[in-house]
Amino acid sequence: MATMEIRSARKTYGTLCVLEDINLSIGDGEFIVLVGPSGCGKSTLLRMIAGLEEISAGEIRIEDRVVNDLPPKARDIAMVFQSYALYPHMNVADNMSYSLRLRKADKPTIADKVRDASAKLGLGALLERKPKALSGGQRQRVAMGRAIVRQPKAFLFDEPLSNLDARLREQMRAEIRKLHRALGATSIYVTHDQVEAMTLADRIVAMHGGHIQQVGTPLELYDRPANLFVAGFIGSPGMNFVEGAVELGTFVMRDGTRLPLPEGMPETLGGATLGIRPEHVTLGEGLAAEVELVEPTGHGIILHLRLAGAVFRVLTTDRRWLTPGDQVQVGLPAGALHLFDESEQRVAPAPHPQQ
Amino acid sequence: MDNIAGRKSSLSWAVNISVVVIVALWLFPTVGLFVSSFRTADQIATTGWWKAPFAAEQNLTLRTGAPDSQAQEGDVWVIAGNLFDEEGVQPAPISVWGISSRDVGAYAVGETAETRAGERITVLENGDYRMEAPERMEGSRGQRVFVTAVVPPEFTLANYRQVLFSDNSTDSMAKAFFNTLTVTIPATIIPIVVAAFAAYALAWMDFPGRALLIAFVVGLLVVPLQLALIPLLKLHLGIGIGKGYLGVWLAHTGFGLPLAIYLLRNYMAGLPRDIIENARVDGATEFQIFTKIILPLSYPALASFAIFQFLWTWNDLLVAKVFLIDATGQTTVMTNQIVELLGTRGGNWEILATAAFVSIAVPLAVFFAMQRYLVRGLLAGSVK
């Protein structure tokens, strides 16, 4: 278990800069999730921590030791790969004990640790099997077991669940969470799935275009997104955005529709974007909109509306019978509004989400 | 299966026919050689090898007992016995027989023929005969009888005895067989070991000039080895290796390396990067990754190259002639031995067939023993 510190880390390939000025400190036992769309540099950052990619500038410290020039094996970290990367010619027990055997641990210790880890993961009956005789979920477990037996300073997960089907992913997600609670190990987890990020993380690091966009607890990112990117990325279905400007405490949309803003918001702001989450929009009194598409999800309905010329999504548990073409009125509660300025940064006080 | 990936090609009949033709082309000479090697020179000369498993009609020229074995029974002189009593003749059921070379099938069994001298002969199916004459028979030899008999199939190990164990050094393949093994086994193992190291470095280790080195190896693939024969031999003679096993091992290694490195590098480069990186994170050194991860996973590629290299060195004549075989003839290999047999025993098909089969037996065994490595995918199940 260890703390980790990333200071002004950069990664360049020739003239191409994929990571710029990354600063992050990770507490002992913390579960950090790096989340972002493909190509945002999150896996590269993980691989830099693991020692599989060189650090172009800046430094990475594990327990106050600069590890920039240390090879992966000297950093005492374990990594779980998306493809599981099991050794196909070794059985489950050998896969799990390989790192210990490389460290020349004695046989009883190895056997003990493998037994413990396989019991934790429910792999006890499969120890003699080769990876090809395992199902996807079992392979995933072996990959985790391989990391657990080492008792490393930190676990690194590189999209470990993306090869599993939806149900299994849910189950493994819960298991990873439980495992983390049991082991209390510092973990860094990379994913592009914001649901995974929300459910697993102590703190989320949202990344985009080689920059960290926001670091915070899942609810911080959900309630007070620092910029348009985070606001749009976190939450499903994504936040609704309406472009316009603020004049005299009122938000004026492109088509002239006016919406009074709550107290504390700026009085005037040219080129602003207003955001509201689909689940905070109420049906009933308010602005007129036309239904374009109805998507029942079972526990609710996602309505695609046309409001002030833009597509607007509403998540409601109201099972009212609506068909495309119907006219509805939507209310945008003042407490749930997010306002972003021209440079896409959040402005003004945190609204308190309504319950 | 209606999905596109599983649809049968409309040309599958062409594939099937080609496979049958190729198998037939390959199988007929091999089986022919194999069968011929168990037949005597006479059998090879009279019937084709495909008739070997069946009983054959054969014309034999036999003799009755000599006149001095005749006995008097009443007023006739009689010679009786069995035609197959003669030495070296296998008994066989007789179908027809005759007493003149112009008409060897004149009589059926049980009929009686009369010779010009007035003797009456009766021949039964099992070869029993009875020759009667009113007067005492003259002469020193018995009456010739031409019989047409159905001879059962017969195989012999004599050819192998001759080729493998005879003391005659021009016929013996035994020494050449072991010489060939002495050439082939190191000439297969050395390039594989060297190439495996090189391939790993070229596939997975970062160093400047790696791409150029790979391009150079690929370029070497198209250089004909004949180009190097004379300079290399001069080099060997110059540095004191001379003609001998060491020289031929080095030559085969050199000639085999470009292909070996190319094949193995391509295979190793295709191994999943995650597995190797995981091993690095697990704490393996480059050498441990090579021996514990890469080599076991590369068995199919190693085996297929081993088969190629083994067959090529086993069947090689040119490199052996240049780098190995000297005037003493003590280091002759099988291919060379067969060439010499063609000169000394050109007419003895049974010897040539046997020698040829001895030389292809090992490649056949190697191929059948290792062909599963060619098709086995060791990677199944490692990455999804």
Tell me what you see in this structure.
The complex is a heterodimer of chains A (355) and B (384). In chain A, helix 2 packs across helix 3. The two termini of chain A are 38 Å apart. Chain A has helices at residues 42-50, 92-102, 107-121, 136-148, 166-183, 194-200, 218-223, 228-233, and strands spanning 4-13, 16-26, 31-35, 57-62, 65-66, 77-80, 154-158, 186-191, 203-208, 211-216, 240-247, 250-253, 258-260, 269-276, 282-296, 301-307, 310-316, 327-331, 338-340. Chain A folds into 2 domains: 4-228, Rossmann fold, CATH 3.40.50; 237-340, OB fold (Dihydrolipoamide Acetyltransferase, E2P) (Beta Barrel), CATH 2.40.50.140. Chain A has 355 residues and is an alpha+beta fold. A 6-stranded mixed β-sheet of chain A has the order 6-7-8-3-9-10, sandwiched between helices. Chain A has a 5-stranded antiparallel β-sheet with strand order 13-12-11-14-19. Helix content of chain B is 53%, strand content 12%. Chain B has 384 residues and is α+β, with helices and mostly antiparallel strands. In chain B, strand 7 (120-123) and strand 8 (128-133) form a beta hairpin. Chain A: Belongs to the ABC transporter superfamily. Chain A: One of its GO terms (cellular component) is ATP-binding cassette (ABC) transporter complex, substrate-binding subunit-containing.
Report the CATH C-level class of the largest domain in chain B.
Mainly Alpha
**Remind me, CATH topology of the largest domain in chain B?**
MetI-like fold
Listing every helix as H and every strand as E from the N terminus to the C terminus, the arrangement of chain B reads HHEEEEEEEEEHHHHHHHHHHH
| Largest two-chain interface | A-B, 32 and 24 residues
Could you describe the largest sheet of chain B, including whether it forms a barrel?
A: 5 strands, antiparallel
The main sheet of chain B orders its strands as 2-3-8-7-6
Q: Spatial order of the strands in the main sheet of chain A? A: 6-7-8-3-9-10
How many structural domains does the protein architecture of chain A include? 2
CATH H-level homologous superfamily name of the largest domain in chain B: MetI-like
Mean pLDDT of chain A: 89
Q: Enumerate how many helices of chain A there are, as a single number.
A: 8
InterPro entries (chain A): AAA+_ATPase, ABC_transporter-like_ATP-bd, ABC_transporter-like_CS, ABC_transpr_MalK-like, ABC_transpr_MalK/UgpC-like, Mo/tungstate-bd_C_term_dom, NA-bd_OB-fold, P-loop_NTPase
Organism (chain A): Sagittula salina
GO biological process, one term (chain A): carbohydrate transport
GO molecular function (chain A): ABC-type transporter activity; ATP binding; ATP hydrolysis activity
